[in-house]
Queue: 3 jobs
Job 1
Amino acid sequence: MSAPASSGNFVHLHNHTEYSMLDGAARIEDMISTAHDLGMPAIATTDHGFIFGAYEFWKTAQKYDVKPIIGLEAYLTPGTHRTDKTRVKYGDGGRDDVSGGGAYTHMTMLARNNNGMHNLFRMASLASMEGYYFKPRMDKELLETYGQGMIVTTGCPSGEIQTRLRLGQYREAVQHASDLRDIFGHENVYCELMDHGIQIERQVRQDLLKLARELDLPLLATNDLHYTKQEDAKAHSALLCVQSGSTMQDPNRFQFGGDGYYLKTAEEMRHLWRELPEACDNTLVVAERCDISFTEGEGRYMPKFPCPEGHDETSWFLAEVETGLHRRFPEGVPDYARKQAAYESNVIIDKGYCFTPETPVLMADGAWKPIQDVRAGEDVTSVDMSSYRGRVARVEEVLTREVSEELYVVRPHGQPWPIRATAEHPFLVARRGWVEARDVRPGDEVMLPQPPRDPYQPFDLRSLMQERGWQTEERPGQRVARLGSGRLRALVRTRETCRGPWNGRQN
């Protein structure tokens, strides 16, 4: 990427949004729209310890045509294993020593590609699950295992390198930087420079530059952004008061030293680093090197959990909800709580299952109706996913959403219309159980409703789907099973995919 003399001649690569809890006061949309207005080609998110704002950041950046860079200001153990809660001192334990009272150091990490982003997700998750001690901490083992596809920096004053330099431990700082090069690759480690007018940054500046020259690390200017506009500094101070439980009137409250933790213009940053212009040039180089994307789709990034025997994800979720209700209300679950839990559970479950508008639904009166015409209060046929019992259910709400993801088309024999569904929609398949649309195969026998001549009676599909002694009708190219007067299952002829956009609905 070239570095033209323009307002976009800089990219901010160290930024804290509202997802840096009680620390970042920069709202994602405000920050990205400001970068866009300033003509900046890209911007990064590097929230503290957690990365759950990544998708919103990426999505918002698409809206403003600004290149998103997904990163993290990670917490690292001070040389210990992530499960070890020993506090470590590099020196005498004073304020210049390891941050968090000896619990962790900091490092800036940026995903260079999708593999790097996925590795960042993995490490952030493992840091929370296995390394949490005051903060979610990574260790060297995680970096060595999942370090592919990333760019890292020497970090802020709380990073190990600057901590070592403050304590006069230059060789130890060099060794740590060398370890980073070995893990991430020489070309993927940068020497990060900040200047907010505070002594803790300036006292190690010369040693930091010396280290960069010795190890041939490119310089990288950042601004540790915590709010978007310069005038937001007071609001950020108030946020820090909430974090520390103090007030703005308290002279001893926790507050940032120096100033300028906002989204500065390219001109401001280049003036600040006018003696080291390559540190600003390299922000454009890093932005050019980073290229990530999300593949959109409802539920695509939801985790898949192993379920206890006899459960699928839905039945297990509902069982956990029931357990939670009884734990919270040991004397008996009141009606209002059960009703609210049922409503919330159904929303969570239903949001994952989607049909296109023209898909017919079998109503309780035996008539077929396109799902787009079904209204709250009407009765439809359904199957309880946990009990496998056929039933008539009252529609409480119909949800509508735009669907641009890949849809799966299931075409059963004897069915006059194809069934278009999102990948996660479950089909009840003979001898397989509940199977997501993406996993239905030609030759599977899927359970399908059929209007009966007699009034509906509940029936148990669990036993029926295991049996082979069906009364069947054999026709060329198809097999249809019948139970009484209603068709129960049909052979899948083909399964294919298509794309919307569709206006999907759930009942």
Job 2
Amino acid sequence: MGSQGSAWRGERASLEHTLRVPPSLAALRFVLDQAEPPRIRYPCSLRDFVPSNMTDSSLPGTATLAPDLLLGEPVTDATHAEFVQLLDAATRADDAGFLAALDEWIDHTRHHFGQEEAWMEAMAFGPQHCHRGEHEQVLAVAGAVRDKVAEGDLALGRRLLSELPGWFDQHVKAMDAMMVNHMRENGFSLIEAPSEQAA
């Protein structure tokens, strides 16, 4: 990766220090030395990026989301419920189905994070770069671990999944809560989440 790789490792170290990455996730950072810098699309409109695999009406509603993780914004809460459901499905997957389940969670998470970043950019949300930095850190770790799983290291993948709930709890209560509060305070309203009673 040359100088670009060195710069990326420097950025990663700076992010870890600035964001105080939980030690459990930071313990996996050794795999990042082989990871390319993340390439994430940043849409520029609140309604510009609502992937078809998000807020899927075939998935359960927010009942599976812990009450202390509900932020009261329907689209965000529905997406977070899907994050938890797909993470749980990957955790419960047998060895034969583990990589596919991990890929599904990573794909959803990439779109989930991209959607939040689109909203923050459209709102000119001040702390968006710090918030985005946490997203990039987790996606980089997940992508690098995914590559190790594809090579047969399922234990590393399962370790990642066991550590993510703690990170997610902190991220929702700090970063996402600030984002949703900014939406409310500035009159931003998102599209409605699908009704659980939809035909």
Job 3
Amino acid sequence: MTTRQALRRRLIWQGCFTSISLYTLVIVCMGVAGRVTA
């Protein structure tokens, strides 16, 4: 495996992890906001 492929794989994993983290954060924020307004 070349270093370029390893870097690309790491970038993809980082992107997926960031997306999941942001998605979870949005859901948590929406849940908290829903509780506050309700």
